[in-house]
Amino acid sequence: MALCLLTAPPAAATDGPVVTAPAVTGLDHIPIAVNDLDTAAARFRALGFALKPGVTHADGIRNQHVKFPDGTELELITAPTATDELTADYRRLLAAGDAPAFLGLYAPDHDALPAVLASLAPGYHRDGPMVGFPTNDPLHFLFFWHRNQSPTDRPEHFAHANGGQSLIGVWLASDDASLPALLSGLGGVRDVGLACTPDCMMRRQWRFQEGTITLLPADRQRLPGRPVVGAVIRVASLEQALAAVKAVIPAPTVVHAAEGDSILIPPDTTAGLWLELRAVRP
Question: Using one digit for the tens of pLDDT, what is the confidence trace for 83-103?
Answer without folding.
Answer: 999 999 999 999 999 999 999
